[in-house]
Design brief:
The chain is globular and about 85 Å long. Strand 3 and strand 4 form a beta hairpin. The mean pLDDT is about 95. Helix content is about 45%, strand content about 15%. It is α/β, with parallel strands linked by helices. The protein contains 17 helices and 15 strands. The structure holds nicotinamide-adenine-dinucleotide, L-histidinol and zinc ion.
Length: about 425
Protein backbone atom coordinates (compact mmCIF):
# COMPACT_ATOMS: atom_id res chain seq x y z
CA UNK A 1 0.00 0.00 0.00
CA UNK A 2 1.14 3.54 -0.72
CA UNK A 3 2.20 5.57 2.29
CA UNK A 4 1.16 8.90 0.77
CA UNK A 5 0.19 11.42 3.45
CA UNK A 6 -3.57 11.75 3.90
CA UNK A 7 -4.26 15.04 5.62
CA UNK A 8 -7.19 17.09 6.77
CA UNK A 9 -6.75 20.84 6.40
CA UNK A 10 -8.49 21.32 9.75
CA UNK A 11 -6.37 18.91 11.75
CA UNK A 12 -4.10 20.30 14.44
CA UNK A 13 -0.58 20.93 13.14
CA UNK A 14 -1.71 20.78 9.49
CA UNK A 15 0.01 24.02 8.48
CA UNK A 16 3.35 22.90 9.97
CA UNK A 17 3.00 19.55 8.18
CA UNK A 18 2.26 21.34 4.90
CA UNK A 19 5.27 23.61 5.33
CA UNK A 20 7.50 20.58 5.91
CA UNK A 21 6.08 18.92 2.82
CA UNK A 22 6.70 21.96 0.65
CA UNK A 23 10.18 22.71 1.99
CA UNK A 24 12.46 21.74 -0.80
CA UNK A 25 16.10 22.74 -0.59
CA UNK A 26 16.24 23.37 -4.31
CA UNK A 27 19.64 24.94 -4.35
CA UNK A 28 20.89 25.21 -0.80
CA UNK A 29 21.70 21.63 0.17
CA UNK A 30 25.23 21.78 1.58
CA UNK A 31 26.76 18.71 -0.01
CA UNK A 32 25.25 19.47 -3.43
CA UNK A 33 26.63 23.01 -3.16
CA UNK A 34 30.11 21.65 -2.44
CA UNK A 35 30.04 19.26 -5.39
CA UNK A 36 28.71 21.89 -7.77
CA UNK A 37 31.25 24.52 -6.63
CA UNK A 38 34.08 22.09 -7.34
CA UNK A 39 32.67 21.11 -10.73
CA UNK A 40 32.06 24.70 -11.84
CA UNK A 41 35.53 25.88 -10.75
CA UNK A 42 37.24 22.91 -12.38
CA UNK A 43 35.45 23.40 -15.70
CA UNK A 44 36.24 27.10 -15.62
CA UNK A 45 39.93 26.42 -15.00
CA UNK A 46 40.49 23.29 -17.08
CA UNK A 47 37.87 23.39 -19.83
CA UNK A 48 37.45 20.25 -21.91
CA UNK A 49 39.70 18.14 -19.67
CA UNK A 50 37.31 18.69 -16.74
CA UNK A 51 34.29 17.99 -18.96
CA UNK A 52 35.78 14.64 -20.01
CA UNK A 53 36.54 13.77 -16.37
CA UNK A 54 33.00 14.52 -15.11
CA UNK A 55 31.26 12.95 -18.10
CA UNK A 56 33.14 9.72 -17.33
CA UNK A 57 32.40 10.01 -13.60
CA UNK A 58 28.73 11.08 -13.57
CA UNK A 59 27.44 9.80 -16.91
CA UNK A 60 29.67 6.72 -17.23
CA UNK A 61 30.74 7.81 -20.70
CA UNK A 62 34.45 7.75 -21.48
CA UNK A 63 35.56 9.98 -24.32
CA UNK A 64 39.12 10.75 -25.37
CA UNK A 65 38.89 14.25 -26.83
CA UNK A 66 36.79 17.37 -26.40
CA UNK A 67 35.73 17.13 -30.04
CA UNK A 68 33.92 13.85 -29.27
CA UNK A 69 31.57 15.76 -26.96
CA UNK A 70 29.84 17.27 -29.95
CA UNK A 71 27.14 15.24 -31.68
CA UNK A 72 27.61 16.00 -35.40
CA UNK A 73 24.75 17.77 -37.16
CA UNK A 74 24.55 14.94 -39.70
CA UNK A 75 23.60 12.59 -36.84
CA UNK A 76 20.67 14.82 -35.91
CA UNK A 77 19.35 14.62 -39.47
CA UNK A 78 19.94 10.86 -39.60
CA UNK A 79 17.96 10.43 -36.38
CA UNK A 80 15.09 12.46 -37.84
CA UNK A 81 15.01 10.19 -40.88
CA UNK A 82 15.40 6.98 -38.83
CA UNK A 83 12.62 7.43 -36.25
CA UNK A 84 9.17 5.99 -37.05
CA UNK A 85 6.87 8.26 -39.04
CA UNK A 86 4.34 8.64 -36.20
CA UNK A 87 7.10 9.93 -33.90
CA UNK A 88 8.40 12.31 -36.57
CA UNK A 89 4.89 13.62 -37.31
CA UNK A 90 4.09 14.06 -33.60
CA UNK A 91 7.33 15.96 -32.98
CA UNK A 92 6.57 18.18 -35.97
CA UNK A 93 2.99 18.79 -34.83
CA UNK A 94 4.16 19.62 -31.33
CA UNK A 95 6.79 22.04 -32.71
CA UNK A 96 4.18 23.72 -34.94
CA UNK A 97 1.71 24.18 -32.07
CA UNK A 98 4.40 25.44 -29.68
CA UNK A 99 5.56 27.91 -32.35
CA UNK A 100 2.02 29.18 -33.03
CA UNK A 101 1.43 29.77 -29.30
CA UNK A 102 4.78 31.48 -28.72
CA UNK A 103 4.43 33.79 -31.71
CA UNK A 104 1.71 35.53 -29.69
CA UNK A 105 4.32 36.40 -27.05
CA UNK A 106 6.61 38.46 -29.30
CA UNK A 107 7.25 41.89 -27.81
CA UNK A 108 7.79 44.67 -30.34
CA UNK A 109 9.78 47.90 -30.17
CA UNK A 110 7.75 51.07 -29.60
CA UNK A 111 8.30 54.82 -29.50
CA UNK A 112 6.36 58.07 -29.23
CA UNK A 113 7.06 61.69 -29.99
CA UNK A 114 6.43 64.58 -27.62
CA UNK A 115 5.07 67.98 -28.72
CA UNK A 116 8.58 69.53 -28.98
CA UNK A 117 9.84 66.70 -31.24
CA UNK A 118 11.64 64.66 -28.56
CA UNK A 119 11.32 60.95 -29.23
CA UNK A 120 11.22 58.29 -26.50
CA UNK A 121 10.87 54.57 -26.89
CA UNK A 122 12.06 51.03 -26.33
CA UNK A 123 13.97 48.83 -28.76
CA UNK A 124 13.49 45.09 -28.37
CA UNK A 125 16.31 42.83 -29.57
CA UNK A 126 16.94 39.08 -29.34
CA UNK A 127 19.83 37.65 -27.32
CA UNK A 128 22.83 36.69 -29.48
CA UNK A 129 23.36 33.19 -28.13
CA UNK A 130 21.66 30.87 -25.66
CA UNK A 131 22.41 27.52 -24.06
CA UNK A 132 19.52 25.06 -23.90
CA UNK A 133 19.73 22.52 -21.08
CA UNK A 134 17.79 19.38 -21.98
CA UNK A 135 17.59 16.95 -19.06
CA UNK A 136 18.56 13.34 -19.64
CA UNK A 137 19.49 11.62 -16.40
CA UNK A 138 16.40 9.58 -15.53
CA UNK A 139 14.39 10.04 -18.71
CA UNK A 140 14.96 11.46 -22.20
CA UNK A 141 13.04 14.63 -23.05
CA UNK A 142 12.58 15.36 -26.77
CA UNK A 143 9.65 17.56 -25.71
CA UNK A 144 12.03 19.74 -23.68
CA UNK A 145 14.14 20.31 -26.81
CA UNK A 146 11.06 21.79 -28.48
CA UNK A 147 9.99 23.80 -25.41
CA UNK A 148 13.47 25.33 -25.02
CA UNK A 149 14.38 25.90 -28.66
CA UNK A 150 11.18 27.15 -30.30
CA UNK A 151 10.69 30.31 -28.20
CA UNK A 152 14.37 31.16 -28.74
CA UNK A 153 13.93 30.79 -32.49
CA UNK A 154 10.71 32.82 -32.45
CA UNK A 155 12.58 35.58 -30.60
CA UNK A 156 15.25 35.54 -33.32
CA UNK A 157 18.23 34.23 -31.30
CA UNK A 158 21.11 33.60 -33.72
CA UNK A 159 22.94 30.78 -31.91
CA UNK A 160 21.30 27.91 -30.04
CA UNK A 161 23.72 25.57 -28.25
CA UNK A 162 22.08 22.50 -26.74
CA UNK A 163 23.50 20.23 -24.04
CA UNK A 164 22.00 16.88 -23.07
CA UNK A 165 23.54 14.11 -20.98
CA UNK A 166 23.69 10.66 -22.55
CA UNK A 167 24.26 8.37 -19.54
CA UNK A 168 26.23 5.22 -20.50
CA UNK A 169 26.52 6.68 -23.99
CA UNK A 170 22.86 5.99 -24.77
CA UNK A 171 21.79 8.59 -27.28
CA UNK A 172 18.04 9.08 -27.71
CA UNK A 173 17.06 9.38 -31.38
CA UNK A 174 13.92 11.40 -30.65
CA UNK A 175 15.98 13.97 -28.76
CA UNK A 176 18.35 14.33 -31.73
CA UNK A 177 15.43 14.40 -34.17
CA UNK A 178 13.77 17.19 -32.16
CA UNK A 179 17.04 19.13 -32.29
CA UNK A 180 17.03 18.72 -36.09
CA UNK A 181 13.40 19.90 -36.35
CA UNK A 182 14.20 22.96 -34.24
CA UNK A 183 17.36 23.70 -36.21
CA UNK A 184 19.59 23.85 -33.14
CA UNK A 185 23.13 24.98 -34.09
CA UNK A 186 25.18 22.53 -32.02
CA UNK A 187 24.50 19.67 -29.59
CA UNK A 188 26.94 18.47 -26.92
CA UNK A 189 26.66 15.29 -24.93
CA UNK A 190 27.00 16.94 -21.55
CA UNK A 191 24.85 17.09 -18.43
CA UNK A 192 24.68 18.30 -14.86
CA UNK A 193 26.72 21.15 -13.37
CA UNK A 194 29.57 20.58 -15.84
CA UNK A 195 27.29 21.33 -18.79
CA UNK A 196 26.06 24.54 -17.16
CA UNK A 197 29.63 25.65 -16.37
CA UNK A 198 30.77 24.93 -19.94
CA UNK A 199 27.98 27.08 -21.36
CA UNK A 200 28.70 29.89 -18.90
CA UNK A 201 32.48 30.10 -19.28
CA UNK A 202 33.13 28.31 -22.57
CA UNK A 203 35.79 25.65 -23.14
CA UNK A 204 38.03 24.75 -26.07
CA UNK A 205 35.03 22.95 -27.59
CA UNK A 206 31.87 24.42 -26.09
CA UNK A 207 31.12 28.08 -26.91
CA UNK A 208 30.13 30.41 -24.07
CA UNK A 209 26.57 31.73 -24.36
CA UNK A 210 24.73 34.77 -22.99
CA UNK A 211 21.93 32.94 -21.18
CA UNK A 212 21.22 29.38 -20.04
CA UNK A 213 17.65 28.09 -19.98
CA UNK A 214 15.93 24.80 -19.27
CA UNK A 215 14.96 22.45 -16.48
CA UNK A 216 17.13 19.95 -14.65
CA UNK A 217 17.85 18.20 -11.39
CA UNK A 218 19.31 19.73 -8.24
CA UNK A 219 22.87 19.78 -9.67
CA UNK A 220 21.69 21.70 -12.72
CA UNK A 221 19.56 24.12 -10.67
CA UNK A 222 22.40 24.80 -8.24
CA UNK A 223 24.92 25.37 -11.04
CA UNK A 224 22.55 27.73 -12.85
CA UNK A 225 22.19 29.84 -9.75
CA UNK A 226 25.99 29.81 -9.28
CA UNK A 227 26.81 31.10 -12.79
CA UNK A 228 24.06 33.72 -12.78
CA UNK A 229 25.64 37.11 -13.35
CA UNK A 230 28.24 35.76 -15.76
CA UNK A 231 25.28 34.63 -17.87
CA UNK A 232 21.55 35.13 -17.55
CA UNK A 233 19.30 32.27 -16.47
CA UNK A 234 15.60 31.76 -16.98
CA UNK A 235 14.41 30.46 -13.60
CA UNK A 236 14.81 27.57 -11.23
CA UNK A 237 12.87 24.78 -12.95
CA UNK A 238 13.47 21.76 -10.73
CA UNK A 239 11.65 18.49 -10.00
CA UNK A 240 8.16 18.40 -11.46
CA UNK A 241 5.04 19.13 -9.42
CA UNK A 242 1.30 18.79 -9.83
CA UNK A 243 -1.58 19.92 -7.67
CA UNK A 244 -4.98 18.55 -8.69
CA UNK A 245 -8.02 20.27 -7.25
CA UNK A 246 -11.11 18.11 -7.81
CA UNK A 247 -14.70 18.57 -6.65
CA UNK A 248 -15.11 14.79 -6.44
CA UNK A 249 -16.93 14.36 -9.76
CA UNK A 250 -14.07 13.21 -12.01
CA UNK A 251 -13.22 9.55 -12.57
CA UNK A 252 -10.84 8.71 -9.67
CA UNK A 253 -8.66 6.60 -11.99
CA UNK A 254 -8.04 9.66 -14.15
CA UNK A 255 -6.97 11.69 -11.14
CA UNK A 256 -4.77 8.89 -9.77
CA UNK A 257 -2.83 8.69 -13.03
CA UNK A 258 -2.63 12.48 -13.34
CA UNK A 259 -0.86 12.40 -9.97
CA UNK A 260 1.39 9.56 -11.16
CA UNK A 261 2.27 11.48 -14.32
CA UNK A 262 4.46 13.98 -12.52
CA UNK A 263 5.61 11.58 -9.79
CA UNK A 264 7.15 9.33 -12.45
CA UNK A 265 9.65 12.04 -13.43
CA UNK A 266 11.76 11.85 -10.32
CA UNK A 267 11.81 10.55 -6.73
CA UNK A 268 11.88 14.25 -5.77
CA UNK A 269 8.74 15.14 -7.75
CA UNK A 270 5.63 16.31 -5.87
CA UNK A 271 2.00 15.31 -6.48
CA UNK A 272 -0.83 16.68 -4.34
CA UNK A 273 -4.60 16.13 -4.48
CA UNK A 274 -6.89 18.69 -2.84
CA UNK A 275 -10.60 17.91 -2.57
CA UNK A 276 -13.56 18.72 -0.33
CA UNK A 277 -14.98 15.22 -0.82
CA UNK A 278 -13.48 12.77 1.72
CA UNK A 279 -15.08 9.74 0.01
CA UNK A 280 -13.57 10.78 -3.29
CA UNK A 281 -10.15 11.16 -1.65
CA UNK A 282 -10.48 7.54 -0.49
CA UNK A 283 -11.49 6.41 -4.01
CA UNK A 284 -8.44 8.10 -5.55
CA UNK A 285 -6.24 6.43 -2.93
CA UNK A 286 -7.77 3.05 -3.87
CA UNK A 287 -7.22 3.77 -7.59
CA UNK A 288 -3.60 4.66 -6.91
CA UNK A 289 -2.95 1.41 -5.09
CA UNK A 290 -4.67 -0.63 -7.80
CA UNK A 291 -2.94 1.11 -10.71
CA UNK A 292 0.56 1.54 -9.29
CA UNK A 293 1.68 -2.07 -9.96
CA UNK A 294 0.85 -1.54 -13.66
CA UNK A 295 3.31 1.35 -13.98
CA UNK A 296 6.78 0.59 -15.40
CA UNK A 297 8.22 3.44 -13.29
CA UNK A 298 6.38 2.36 -10.15
CA UNK A 299 9.46 2.54 -7.93
CA UNK A 300 10.08 6.20 -8.74
CA UNK A 301 6.35 6.98 -8.41
CA UNK A 302 6.07 5.23 -5.05
CA UNK A 303 9.05 7.03 -3.58
CA UNK A 304 7.90 10.44 -4.84
CA UNK A 305 4.36 9.90 -3.49
CA UNK A 306 5.46 8.46 -0.14
CA UNK A 307 8.12 11.11 0.49
CA UNK A 308 6.59 14.25 -0.99
CA UNK A 309 2.98 13.51 -2.03
CA UNK A 310 -0.27 14.29 -0.19
CA UNK A 311 -4.02 13.87 -0.38
CA UNK A 312 -5.57 16.84 1.42
CA UNK A 313 -9.23 17.06 2.39
CA UNK A 314 -10.52 20.61 2.76
CA UNK A 315 -13.88 21.99 3.96
CA UNK A 316 -14.88 23.81 0.82
CA UNK A 317 -13.78 25.43 -2.42
CA UNK A 318 -12.60 28.59 -0.66
CA UNK A 319 -10.17 26.62 1.49
CA UNK A 320 -8.97 24.75 -1.59
CA UNK A 321 -8.17 28.02 -3.37
CA UNK A 322 -6.31 29.29 -0.33
CA UNK A 323 -4.24 26.07 -0.37
CA UNK A 324 -3.49 26.45 -4.09
CA UNK A 325 -2.20 29.99 -3.62
CA UNK A 326 0.03 28.95 -0.71
CA UNK A 327 1.49 25.99 -2.60
CA UNK A 328 1.91 27.94 -5.88
CA UNK A 329 2.28 24.71 -7.87
CA UNK A 330 4.13 24.31 -11.13
CA UNK A 331 1.05 22.60 -12.64
CA UNK A 332 -2.48 23.11 -11.37
CA UNK A 333 -5.35 20.95 -12.59
CA UNK A 334 -8.80 22.38 -11.89
CA UNK A 335 -10.90 19.23 -12.31
CA UNK A 336 -14.27 20.87 -11.76
CA UNK A 337 -17.39 21.80 -13.79
CA UNK A 338 -16.68 25.49 -14.17
CA UNK A 339 -12.92 26.13 -14.00
CA UNK A 340 -13.30 29.57 -15.59
CA UNK A 341 -15.20 30.74 -12.53
CA UNK A 342 -12.21 29.85 -10.33
CA UNK A 343 -9.62 31.52 -12.53
CA UNK A 344 -9.82 35.06 -11.09
CA UNK A 345 -9.08 33.65 -7.62
CA UNK A 346 -5.93 31.73 -8.65
CA UNK A 347 -2.92 33.96 -8.05
CA UNK A 348 0.03 31.57 -8.17
CA UNK A 349 0.54 28.63 -10.54
CA UNK A 350 2.97 27.96 -13.40
CA UNK A 351 0.30 26.56 -15.71
CA UNK A 352 -3.42 26.02 -15.13
CA UNK A 353 -5.15 23.04 -16.73
CA UNK A 354 -8.86 23.68 -16.83
CA UNK A 355 -11.68 21.14 -16.71
CA UNK A 356 -11.99 17.40 -16.40
CA UNK A 357 -10.74 16.71 -19.94
CA UNK A 358 -7.48 18.61 -19.68
CA UNK A 359 -4.79 16.19 -18.57
CA UNK A 360 -1.61 17.95 -17.53
CA UNK A 361 0.29 15.55 -19.81
CA UNK A 362 -1.22 17.27 -22.88
CA UNK A 363 0.55 20.43 -21.78
CA UNK A 364 3.82 18.56 -21.34
CA UNK A 365 3.84 17.59 -25.00
CA UNK A 366 1.67 19.38 -27.47
CA UNK A 367 -0.97 21.85 -26.28
CA UNK A 368 1.27 24.79 -27.21
CA UNK A 369 2.19 26.60 -23.97
CA UNK A 370 5.67 25.95 -22.58
CA UNK A 371 6.31 23.05 -20.20
CA UNK A 372 9.40 24.69 -18.65
CA UNK A 373 7.73 26.17 -15.61
CA UNK A 374 8.68 27.57 -12.21
CA UNK A 375 8.78 24.95 -9.44
CA UNK A 376 9.26 24.94 -5.64
CA UNK A 377 6.77 27.78 -5.06
CA UNK A 378 8.70 30.15 -7.36
CA UNK A 379 5.48 30.59 -9.38
CA UNK A 380 4.86 33.37 -6.82
CA UNK A 381 7.34 35.48 -8.79
CA UNK A 382 8.30 33.58 -11.98
CA UNK A 383 6.52 32.79 -15.24
CA UNK A 384 6.69 30.00 -17.84
CA UNK A 385 9.68 30.02 -20.21
CA UNK A 386 8.68 32.21 -23.15
CA UNK A 387 9.81 34.37 -26.03
CA UNK A 388 10.27 37.24 -23.54
CA UNK A 389 13.11 35.24 -21.92
CA UNK A 390 15.04 35.48 -25.18
CA UNK A 391 14.40 39.17 -25.81
CA UNK A 392 15.83 42.19 -24.08
CA UNK A 393 14.97 45.86 -24.16
CA UNK A 394 17.01 49.03 -24.69
CA UNK A 395 15.56 52.44 -23.87
CA UNK A 396 15.56 55.06 -26.66
CA UNK A 397 15.94 58.81 -26.04
CA UNK A 398 16.31 61.40 -28.83
CA UNK A 399 16.01 65.04 -27.78
CA UNK A 400 15.02 67.78 -30.17
CA UNK A 401 16.83 71.12 -29.70
CA UNK A 402 13.73 72.41 -27.92
CA UNK A 403 13.50 69.32 -25.74
CA UNK A 404 17.21 69.59 -24.81
CA UNK A 405 16.57 73.20 -23.80
CA UNK A 406 13.71 72.30 -21.45
CA UNK A 407 15.06 69.04 -20.06
CA UNK A 408 18.63 70.39 -19.79
CA UNK A 409 17.47 72.96 -17.22
CA UNK A 410 15.66 70.30 -15.14
CA UNK A 411 18.59 67.87 -15.30
CA UNK A 412 20.97 70.67 -14.32
CA UNK A 413 19.00 71.43 -11.15
CA UNK A 414 18.75 67.76 -10.19
CA UNK A 415 22.49 67.21 -10.89
CA UNK A 416 23.37 70.21 -8.72
CA UNK A 417 21.27 68.64 -5.98
CA UNK A 418 23.32 65.44 -6.26
CA UNK A 419 26.57 67.39 -6.34
CA UNK A 420 27.47 66.04 -9.78
CA UNK A 421 29.06 68.97 -11.63
CA UNK A 422 29.86 67.25 -14.92
CA UNK A 423 26.30 65.98 -15.24
CA UNK A 424 24.96 69.51 -14.71
CA UNK A 425 27.38 71.06 -17.19
CA UNK A 426 26.78 68.40 -19.83
CA UNK A 427 23.03 68.99 -19.70
CA UNK A 428 23.36 72.82 -19.60
CA UNK A 429 25.68 72.99 -22.64
CA UNK A 430 22.57 72.18 -24.73
CA UNK A 431 20.40 74.84 -23.06
CA UNK A 432 19.94 77.77 -25.39
CA UNK A 433 17.92 80.39 -23.44
N1 LIG B 1 10.25 22.03 -14.67
C1 LIG B 1 10.33 21.56 -15.91
O1 LIG B 1 9.95 22.23 -16.84
C2 LIG B 1 10.88 20.18 -16.15
C3 LIG B 1 10.82 19.58 -17.44
C4 LIG B 1 11.41 18.31 -17.62
C5 LIG B 1 12.03 17.68 -16.53
N2 LIG B 1 12.01 18.32 -15.32
C6 LIG B 1 12.71 17.79 -14.18
O2 LIG B 1 14.09 17.81 -14.52
C7 LIG B 1 14.75 16.84 -13.75
C8 LIG B 1 15.65 16.04 -14.67
O3 LIG B 1 16.55 15.33 -13.84
P1 LIG B 1 17.42 14.13 -14.39
O4 LIG B 1 18.26 13.67 -13.25
O5 LIG B 1 16.55 13.15 -15.09
O6 LIG B 1 18.35 14.76 -15.54
P2 LIG B 1 19.38 15.98 -15.53
O7 LIG B 1 19.88 16.06 -16.94
O8 LIG B 1 18.81 17.20 -14.93
O9 LIG B 1 20.58 15.52 -14.59
C9 LIG B 1 21.45 14.49 -14.95
C10 LIG B 1 22.87 14.93 -14.66
O10 LIG B 1 23.03 15.19 -13.27
C11 LIG B 1 24.36 14.95 -12.92
N3 LIG B 1 24.44 14.17 -11.68
C12 LIG B 1 23.65 13.13 -11.34
N4 LIG B 1 24.05 12.64 -10.14
C13 LIG B 1 25.11 13.39 -9.75
C14 LIG B 1 25.95 13.39 -8.60
N5 LIG B 1 25.77 12.51 -7.62
N6 LIG B 1 26.92 14.32 -8.51
C15 LIG B 1 27.09 15.24 -9.49
N7 LIG B 1 26.32 15.27 -10.60
C16 LIG B 1 25.36 14.37 -10.72
C17 LIG B 1 25.03 14.19 -14.02
O11 LIG B 1 25.98 14.99 -14.63
C18 LIG B 1 23.90 13.88 -15.00
O12 LIG B 1 24.33 14.08 -16.33
C19 LIG B 1 13.67 15.99 -13.08
O13 LIG B 1 13.58 16.40 -11.73
C20 LIG B 1 12.38 16.37 -13.81
O14 LIG B 1 11.26 16.33 -12.97
C21 LIG B 1 11.49 19.54 -15.12
N1 LIG C 1 6.24 17.71 -16.70
C1 LIG C 1 7.54 18.21 -17.11
C2 LIG C 1 7.68 19.63 -16.59
O1 LIG C 1 7.62 19.66 -15.23
C3 LIG C 1 7.74 18.22 -18.59
C4 LIG C 1 7.70 16.92 -19.27
C5 LIG C 1 8.46 16.51 -20.32
N2 LIG C 1 8.06 15.26 -20.64
C6 LIG C 1 7.11 14.91 -19.86
N3 LIG C 1 6.89 15.92 -19.01
ZN1 LIG D 1 5.76 15.68 -17.21
Amino acid sequence: MLNIRRLSANAEGFREELDRLLAWETVSNGSVNDIVTEVVNNVRANGDAALLEYTAKFDRLTLKTGAELEIPKARLQEALERIPADQRDSLQLSADRVRAYHEKQIQNSWSYEEADGTMLGQQVTPLDSVGLYVPGGKAAYPSSVIMNAIPAKVAGVEKLIMVVPTPDGEVNDMVLAAAAICNVDAVFTLGGAQAVAALAYGTETVPAVDKIVGPGNIFVATAKRMVYGTVGIDMIAGPSEILVYCDGQTNPDWIAVDLFSQAEHDEDAQSILVTQDADFAEKVYESMNRLLPTMPRQEIIRKALDDRGAIIVVDNEEQAIEMINVIAPEHLELSVDDPKALLPKIRHAGAIFMGRYTAEAIGDYCAGPNHVLPTSRTARFSSPLGVYDFQKRSSLIMCSAEGANTLGKVAGILADGEGLQAHAMSARFRVTD
